[in-house]
Write a structure and sequence with these properties.
heterotrimer; A alpha+beta (473); B alpha/beta (430); C alpha+beta (153); A: alpha+beta; C: alpha+beta; 4-stranded mixed beta sheet; 4 strands
């Protein structure tokens, strides 16, 4: 393993890596070793054009770009001397001479690398008096992305992203020199299932998503680590919230799961949290408190059990591992068999999207639950934990107790309905398609009385078991 | 068609003859002796001869040709490629056009010698798109070579020596003269220079091992093979042997090409060009094309060779000697120069894309009489932000001439600022 | 694109280790049909080369000798780089602008001439130089230039 010395600190790095890659591998890039960069991105090909990552390498007369300079054993690199600082100031100044400096009306403000690096490495004043290069404002590149040409620094991350990840290649840089402009070909808009990632990787305010732009200043947001629940990939995300409201999902880097990307469908799924919610508990179609509904469910269980009726459990691949475990124990205590579950399926791609359109089918499997789309057959009582898409399977089920966050075909016919928290309203873990267990944290509080599935199960169990204890025989 | 060189030497001896552009006429004038000599030698020995000759690239950078050839991988696992750079676009340089138009077989013979030495099966001769006459001359020459079976499976009847030459036409972009910009363009892309590593010898045209040489460089090679290293080294300097076609332009009585040994004093070259026009006084000379810093009249005794010009703060470049007389406004020269580099920057690297535009705006501002002391200070500083920090040498080439003009003709810039107008009423129009 | 143009382009593919090498020559052939390359032709080139139209357009937009807007029937270019400027090419260009009633980069109303300036054409020893429909006219004075322009159909 080559030894690399950066500003006097020694590191052992992997073979065949460039300086920037090696530092990134160690998790130290901009987190211990400051090598500012624009065009380089850990998951895209190396471009080498922004020139901001120049460092001094002992033995090389010119400054070298850290992104493209292979590490050799014993290499000594300086990132903080005056020569490097002057080069960075130069790049920053030149990037800003044609930049509109319109931070007060720019939606990127607060998470803009141009701001950050200008603050860290730039100069406060502008030395240029020249008019800035005229360019277009608010160009709709496609259904999801709005482009401000004036702010673009031509790092071509977005161009490479479209070429290399979705492989749709909608973007190009037309012209040359200081008249180069990022564009799409007429009639071929930026429109692919991953298009919104370009807004994440755009280091400046040139590319923003139509959905999020101008909704809120980012410094009013705080980010909570979560997991997308739209398929078995389990893309790592940050959910940005303010005042108990979710404003967006953005992908969070996890090289083993989603690298730094997520699909547009998953990104927009933050909206589902507020739509079609099961806001009130119901018993036999009438509003109830959640606790009263849970007690009623417990009673049903007790009665049917006492009468020797058949009780079945239906789990959901949308539930967390913790809830599934509690459900398994709950069913065992009631003497019901192991739960079954059904997984909604759809298209997959070669990128991130998996055919299993639920985050935790593997969690169900790990607990010995049975995957089936078959009818439940005749049963006297079904306990249903979480979202299930197979309402038809319940045709011959007499009574249904449903614990779920959203209204569905099943909630319309269930005898007892207990509103539950969504994954964004609680803590838990999903086991993704590759068997990786991933944690999500609560982002917001529900706007109404909702129980976590575990709380609900606990209430039902108490009611079912304690009542049973009171009525011997 | 441009007139033949005023002063000739071995390269341009027959440039006045139309027959020299035909295979037969070229052979009659002694052509193909070099390749025949080369084919009698093992390939490595040919490279050694070129090394020993001290031939330096004539495309501007002056790199040792034999050494470059030796970088080519020795194994034949992947097809090896030669690229001849005929994208001559350096302002003030017009020698390659002459060579391609009047001595196309010299270039092709040189390529074939390189092909033998390096084991290359294919070469691409990249000619700038504006050079219609060069393209026609080279294509006709290639056709003649093919018909004569000097190209093909067994060139010159030599078993195992397979080679073909493709003449490829550029489309108007100065940056395609940069070797990796050229390779990108040859591959059908924008001519944006490649970051290195990888280098062309490993990953060149179409990903294949590639050696790129200027067309004039190739044209010298047959003479070295035919007449020997000793003979070649009798011309020019120890470090820069041989001749080149100096192109003299601007304010001289007799602009044109002069084939002279490298190291010929600038004063002599000027004299051969009839001196400054109309008996005016000399103001400055750019000795190596627009990318190289200007020299003041006090430096006329410098010899035109890279090692002699470097101590004077400039370079031989492509040997395009641009002469400016006393009427010349050097701020206007800076305006034209900076416009050119702004126009031709490929736009990849920040410093070059943004810096060339800024420098041009500063020059224009000063020329229009709106410049201030701060603008002049900026003009001192901005080129230093660009120099030595980009993928290719274009940003250096954009910075150096401005730095040269400021070093030697600062008074011109200052006068514009002081008088709030251009004080050079007789200067060329902008 | 005409079938014969397409056939000529397809014949170029084998000359290069990768098909895309033939793109620049192919654009010249396509452009020859009407003097510029429109969006449909760009799409057709993209199909022939198994590229995306945006990739072909990037190339078109990079090079001076490719045109993506309609051009005059004739191109008249004046070199305005240093060696030509020193010998009066900018005065020549100003003269032609006045004579034709257009600015450099524009086309005359009758569509006859597109006037432009060009970077160094490699004719510095015979400056100033005019490039008219690809042909060089060297050591040109304004009277010559006017005569050359007048002779264009």
């Amino acid at each position: 393993m080559p030894k690399l010395t950066i500003d006097g600190r020694e590191f052992q790095v992997a073979e065949g890596r460039t300086i920037l890659q090696a530092i990134d591998d160690l998790g130290l890039l901009m987190a211990g070793v400051d090598i500012p960069h624009y065009c380089w991105h850990p998951k895209l090909s190396i471009d080498g054009s922004c020139r901001l990552c120049q460092v001094e390498v002992e033995g090389m007369p010119k400054l070298q770009i850290a992104c493209n300079t292979p590490v050799t054993d014993g290499m000594k690199v300086h990132t903080a001397n005056e020569r490097v600082a002057k080069a960075r100031r130069g790049v920053m100044e030149l990037l800003l001479i044609n930049h509109p400096l319109d931070c007060p009306i720019c939606d990127q403000a607060g998470e803009c690398k141009l701001q950050d690096y200008a603050f860290d490495y730039g100069v406060a004043g502008a030395r240029t008096k020249e008019p800035r290069r005229p360019a277009k404002k608010s160009v709709e590149l496609g259904p999801t992305i709005v482009f401000d040409q004036e702010r673009c620094i031509l790092c071509r991350r977005c161009v490479r992203f479209c070429q290399e990840v979705p492989k749709t290649g909608e973007l190009g840089v037309f012209g040359r020199g200081d008249e180069s402009l990022l564009e799409t070909f007429p009639g071929k808009p930026l429109d692919n299932p991953y298009s919104m990632n370009v807004a994440d990787i755009c280091p400046v305010g040139a590319l923003t998503t139509r959905d999020f732009r101008f909704k809120i200043r980012v410094w009013f947001l705080d980010d909570v680590e979560s997991i997308c629940n739209q398929c078995a990939r389990g893309c790592n995300i940050s959910a940005s919230r303010s005042n108990n409201k979710i404003y967006r999902f953005v992908p969070r880097r996890n090289d083993a799961v989603n690298e730094t990307w997520m699909c547009d469908h998953g990104r927009m799924s933050y909206k589902l949290n507020g739509q079609g919610r099961l806001a009130h508990a119901r018993v036999d179609g009438k509003p109830s408190s959640a606790y009263a509904a849970a007690q009623r469910a417990g009673e049903l269980a007790r009665q049917i059990r006492a009468a020797g009726g058949r009780i079945v459990g239906v789990a959901s691949p949308f539930a967390s591992n913790e809830e599934l475990e509690a459900f398994r124990d709950f069913l065992a205590e009631l003497g019901a068999g192991p739960a079954r579950f059904a997984v909604p399926r759809g298209e997959s791609d070669e990128i991130l999207v998996e055919a299993e359109k639920a985050p935790n089918a593997n969690g169900c499997r790990a607990l010995g639950m049975t995957e089936t789309n078959d009818s439940l057959g005749h049963a006297d009582l079904a306990f249903v934990l979480g979202h299930t898409t197979h309402a038809a399977a319940f045709a011959d089920v007499r009574r249904v107790v449903l614990i779920d966050s959203h209204e569905s075909a099943l909630s319309a016919r269930a005898d007892v309905v207990i509103p539950a928290r969504t994954f964004l309203e609680k803590l838990g873990h999903f086991t993704n398609g590759d068997g990786i267990v991933q944690r999500f944290d609560p982002v917001v509080e529900p706007a109404f009385e909702a129980l976590s599935e575990r709380e609900a199960l606990d209430e039902i169990r108490k009611s079912a078991v304690s009542a049973a204890a009171r009525e011997p025989g | 068609m441009q007139s033949e060189p005023y002063v000739k030497n071995y390269l341009s001896e027959h440039y006045g003859s139309d027959a020299y552009r035909t295979l037969e006429g070229y052979a009659d004038a002694g052509g193909f002796a070099g390749i025949k000599k080369a084919l009698s030698l093992p390939p490595d020995e040919v490279t050694e001869l070129v090394k020993a000759s001290g031939l330096r690239g004539r495309g501007g950078a002056g790199f040792a040709t034999g050494l470059k050839w030796s970088f080519m991988p020795k194994t034949a696992e992947r097809m090896k490629v030669i690229v001849a750079n005929g994208d001559e676009s350096e302002p003030g340089s017009f020698k390659d056009r002459m060579i391609m138009e009047r001595g196309p077989f010299q270039v092709l013979e040189g390529i074939l010698i390189g092909a033998w030495a390096m084991g290359a099966k294919r070469s691409f001769l990249y000619v700038r798109g504006e050079y219609g006459e060069s393209i026609r001359a080279l294509q006709a020459a290639v056709e003649e070579l093919r018909a004569k079976k000097y190209l093909g499976k067994a060139c010159f009847g030599k078993k195992g020596f397979e080679h073909d030459i493709i003449v490829h036409c550029g489309a108007g972009a100065y940056i395609c003269g940069e070797e990796t910009g050229l390779l990108e363009s040859l591959e059908g892309k924008k001519g944006q220079p490649r970051k290195k590593p990888p280098f062309p010898a490993q990953h060149g045209a179409f990903g294949l091992p590639t050696t790129v040489n200027n067309v004039e460089t190739f044209a010298h090679v047959p003479f070295i093979l035919e007449r020997g290293v000793e003979w070649f080294r009798q011309r020019g300097t120890e470090k820069s042997p041989g001749t080149t076609l100096f192109g003299v332009s601007g304010h001289v009585e007799r602009p044109g090409l002069f084939e002279l040994p490298l190291g010929t004093p600038l004063r002599e070259v000027l004299g051969m060009a009839g001196g400054v026009r109309g008996g005016r006084r000399l103001k400055g000379v750019m000795p190596g094309g627009l990318s190289m810093p200007i020299l003041p009249p006090s430096e006329l005794d410098v010899g035109l060779a890279e090692e002699l010009l470097v101590p004077k703060g400039t370079h031989l470049g492509t040997g395009g000697v641009m002469v400016m007389d006393e009427t010349t406004c050097m701020v206007r020269v800076a305006c034209v120069t900076s416009y050119f580099f702004r126009d031709e920057s490929c736009g990849q690297c920040t410093q070059c894309r943004e810096g060339t535009g800024w420098v041009h705006k500063l020059c224009e501002r000063i020329e229009r009489g709106r410049g201030t002391a701060e603008d002049l200070a900026l003009l001192d500083d901005v080129p230093s932000l660009m120099e030595g920090q980009t993928i290719c040498a274009f940003a250096d080439a954009a910075a150096w001439p401005i730095q040269g003009l400021l070093k030697h003709f600062r008074a011109d810039f200052q006068a514009h600022i002081d008088e709030k107008k251009c004080p050079f009423s007789e200067s060329f129009e902008l | 694109m005409r079938p014969d143009t397409r056939a000529q382009i397809e014949a170029l593919f084998a000359r290069y280790p990768a098909k895309r090498g033939a793109l620049l020559p192919a654009i010249y052939l396509a452009q020859a049909e009407k003097g510029w390359v429109d969006a449909d032709t760009t799409r057709e080139l993209a199909r022939l080369f198994e590229l995306r139209p945006v990739e072909v357009y990037e190339v078109l937009s990079f090079y001076n000798m490719f045109y993506t807007v309609p051009q005059g029937r004739h191109h008249v270019y004046v070199c305005t780089n240093v060696p030509c400027s020193l010998r009066g090419s900018r005065s020549l260009l100003r003269g032609l602008e006045a004579y034709l009633g257009v600015q450099a980069g524009e086309t005359t109303k009758d569509g006859r001439v597109t006037l432009g300036h060009e970077e160094c054409l490699g004719s510095c020893g015979t400056a100033p130089v005019l490039r008219v429909d690809g042909a060089y006219h060297e050591n040109v004075e304004f009277a010559d230039a006017r005569r050359i322009v007048d002779e264009l159909e």
